[in-house]
Design a protein that fits this description.
It contains 3 helices and 4 strands. It has 103 residues and is α+β, with helices and mostly antiparallel strands. InterPro entries: Dimeric_a/b-barrel, MLI_dom. Keywords: Isomerase.
Length: 103
């Protein structure tokens, strides 16, 4: 199952710089694990924001829930999760031309 996830992170202003750095490093380490295992397929930053948008693969909603909750910045996140299905144009392309080009 594929999901489009929008993360908006708001760490309280009174959080120490040391804790912010620990959270950032921990978040990167966890994200790198998900990239290596193929669960986090792509990650982007919307222009003009500090938000994150990503394409995530999970075998179940429970797996996705556990993965997102394992992120160090999870307590500071506002999430929008959209399940995705294949578009008919993609299926038609693959029938006529083979796999979609990589992006």
């Amino acid at each position: 199952m594929l999901f489009l996830i929008h993360f908006e992170v708001t760490v309280p202003a009174d959080t120490s710089e040391e804790l912010k750095e620990q959270l950032r490093l921990g978040e990167h380490a966890r994200v790198f694990e998900f990239i290596k295992t193929g669960k986090l397929r792509r990650i982007w930053r919307p222009v003009g924001t500090a938000d994150t948008c990503c394409l995530w693969e999970a075998d179940s909603l429970e797996e996705l829930h556990a993965a997102v909750r394992s992120l160090p910045l999870y307590p500071y996140m506002k999430l929008s999760i959209t399940p995705l299905v294949e578009h008919p144009a993609a299926a038609a392309w693959e029938k006529a031309h083979g796999p979609m080009p990589a992006f």
